[in-house]
Design goal:
The protein is mostly beta strands and about 270 residues long. The protein has helices at about 110-125, 260; strands at about 10-15, 20-25, 30-35, 40-45, 45, 50-55, 65-75, 80-90, 95-100, 155, 160, 165-170, 175-180, 185-190, 195-200, 205-215, 215, 225, 230-235, 245-250, 255. The protein contains 2 helices and 21 strands. It is globular. Zinc ion binds next to strand 12.
């Protein structure tokens, strides 16, 4: 009997805008495990006697059942493919109206070009799956004890609808230290039009964290960072209504509530 027979018809459940951890027991002869999810190939990594990875369910992923394939590559090269189903549950996000400096709503030609260029640069980062880094320690909140419940809010700036809020805003005074949510590598550390002084960390598996509106950046591109290392100080640079930390997480490009990575429920049903 195949050791993987238990995986058949396994169902996972996740809200729109959340990260999901998938864990599969290690079996003798398995060399590597990959998950095919939403047209992306996501590697799993070995953690004790299991294989684990994270997949992202974007804010705008259609509610309903989505199939994912799990590929078990054996030492002899054989690939054992199993289907799993991720049930995406609709989550309603409220609308918020914000008042910011007009230059962030009615963009000049130069600012529009800059913002578009920076968006492309960030999308290129988010679409890369790095294989030499793995987030094998728990994700943590960048400001210890910080809370922020405004992920996913549909936003209207100065009366004009804009993209939904792709992160969580944590209350912070200017100068509050901002800590890396997990170990990783700095892939961006500079000033951007909308997010001001910004740091993006690569945590591997297509998982990226973003820290925006910083008053000071303490790392540079290429630096390795430890979980909890200070990457900068909170501030009010870019499109803001006041000082705070905007903390974003992308999981294979999907916009997910950062707190879902911290509180992620380990999927026990496959063990
Ligand atoms: Zn924000």
């Amino acid at each position: 009997m195949s050791p993987f027979v238990l995986f058949l018809a396994v169902m996972f459940s996740a809200n729109q805008g959340s990260a999901l951890q998938l864990t599969f027991p290690h079996e003798p002869g398995v060399k590597s495990v990959q998950v095919l999810w939403q047209n992306k190939t996501v590697p799993a990594f070995r953690l004790n006697n299991a294989w684990t990875t994270f997949v992202g369910v974007d804010l705008d992923t259609k509610a309903g059942d989505h199939k994912a394939d799990v590929l078990f590559t054996m030492e002899d090269g054989r690939v054992d493919k199993r289907d799993i189903v991720v049930k995406v549950v609709e989550k309603k996000y409220p609308m918020t109206e914000l008042k910011v400096d007009d230059r962030y709503v009615e963009l000049s030609k130069a600012n529009l070009e800059r913002a578009n260029r920076e968006t492309k640069e960030m999308e290129a980062i988010y679409s890369t799956v790095t294989k030499d880094i793995v987030p094998d320690s728990p994700f943590t909140v960048p400001i210890p004890g910080g809370t922020g419940a405004n992920f996913g809010h549909r936003r209207v700036f100065n009366g004009q609808p804009r993209a939904p809020h792709a992160g969580a805003d944590l209350r912070a005074t200017t100068g509050t230290p901002v800590h890396a949510t997990n170990q990783g590598r700095v892939v961006l550390a500079k000033n951007l039009f909308f997010t001001g002084n910004t740091v993006i960390l690569d945590h591997g598996l297509g998982i990226y964290s973003l820290y925006a509106h910083l008053s000071r950046i303490d790392v540079k591109r290429g630096d390795p960072v430890n979980n909890g290392q200070v990457v900068g100080l909170a501030g009010a640079t870019g499109r803001v209504t006041g000082p705070h930390l905007h903390w974003g997480m992308r999981v294979q490009g999907a916009r997910v509530d950062p707190f879902t990575l911290v509180t992620i429920a380990q999927t026990e049903n496959l063990k």
